[in-house]
Amino acid sequence: MIQKIKGTMDILPDETPLFRYIEGIMREEAERYGFGEIRTPTFENTDLFVRGVGDTTDVVQKEMYTFTDRDENRSISLRPEGTASVARALIEHGKCVDTMPQKYYYIISCFRHEAPQAGRSREFFQFGTEMFGADSPAADATSISLAASVIRRLGLTNVKLHMNSIGCKECRPQYRDALVSYFSKYKGELCETCNKRLETNPLRLLDCKSKICSEIAKGAPKTLDHLCDKCKNHFDSLCQYLDAMNIEYTVDPTIVRGLDYYTGTVFEFIAEGIAAQSTVCGGGRYDGLVESLGGPALSGIGFAMGLTRIILAMKQLGTDKVEIANPKLYIASLGDKAALKALEIAERLRRQGTFVECDIMGRSLKAQMKYANKLNAEYTLIIGDSEVESGKAQLRDMKNGTQEELELDSFTI
């Protein structure tokens, strides 16, 4: 038997109502904040992610699904995240010269070759937002507020905001040197990955999940102690905005994010009690991304929220139950003429917008009524030869058992 690929998932009809409920809240909140939906291709030129995400990141080095386009002999990759594609679209469609800020949101599938576990799959689903052209800490606060609003509406009281600043191109080099100097003393104790990162991307040593490396990282220099005045003032102002907006946060120097385009503000919303993959939302500022992709110098701030991790957090709190739509009417039929009439009535009512089910299996009347109960239909209508001849039938309220007679060709419900 052919089975789904490892790390992918089937979302069945009894699960999709929860996904649709979550996505509906995400769309509502994004549009309430003035973001418009954007839809970008599932695959892009590999160079977009190499330049945008960063060639030293695990995403580019280890996790992308990359193949050669058979027609044009070029390297193409399934998108591992959404930000680079939106930035590319911004440049390609001339939006960099439009009125700022440019604000976009998306709900997409992404692909990374990682070890599957709870909250992590190789095809995964993200809600994300991107805001371009707004330099002020008020933009950071707005992005964080939108993420917090979605989390609040989903009832996730076990999710907390952690944030940090990782500096800009002016102050980052000095901090990088401080990290290299500190971690070089522990080369013999660091894991193999961290020893490689020490040469290519030392900032990533701060969030290694190895117990030994994370213990060593506790004594590492803090980003906030190495910020230039501009970055420090920006972060301090962001904290003031969040205080004024009554959004709780923890300043956490271990938050650095895993993609090279981040600068300045970085943040994560972390859920308690959902095992290793506890970050349900992550984001930050990426002021050099557009320029690195061939556009003008244009600031950016955004975040991405994993739907399956959101669902894990909701299940932890028992807030994952959503109401599933039930048929307004079930039409049970006995005989060929009645079956024909049942489909005729069902079609008429469906065109009026009513959720109607009727028998298409040739079940007995007893089995049909049992099925109507299983579907939680609000009303049932039983049609036999006599009902077809008279043009009238009894409509039964399934909650209280009352019945009323109605005209088959004209009733509405």
How many β-strand stretches?
16
Largest sheet: 8 strands, mixed
Element order, helices and strands? Answer: HEEHHEEHEEHEHHHHEEEHEHEHEHEHEE
Provide the helix percentage: 25-40%
Envelope shape: elongated
Mean pLDDT: 93
Q: Work out the radius of gyration.
A: 28 Å
Q: Could you name the ranges where pLDDT drops below 50 across 5 or more consecutive residues?
A: none
Strand content: 15-25%
Strand order of the largest sheet: 1-5-6-11-10-9-7-8
Global structural class: alpha+beta
Report the total helices. 14
Measured distance between first and last alpha carbons? 45 Å
Task: Give a written overview of the molecule.
There is one protein chain. This protein has helices at residues 16-32, 46-52, 58-63, 83-92, 137-153, 172-183, 192-200, 211-217, 229-244, 289-292, 307-317, 336-351, 365-374, 385-390; strands at residues 36-37, 43-45, 66-68, 75-78, 102-111, 123-132, 159-165, 250-251, 263-271, 279-285, 300-306, 329-333, 356-358, 379-383, 392-397, 403-407. The protein is of the alpha+beta class and 413 residues long. It has an 8-stranded mixed beta sheet with strand order 1-5-6-11-10-9-7-8. Strand 12 (329-333), helix 12 and strand 13 (356-358) form a beta-alpha-beta unit. Helix 5 packs parallel to helix 9 (229-244). The two termini are 45 Å apart. The mean pLDDT is 93.
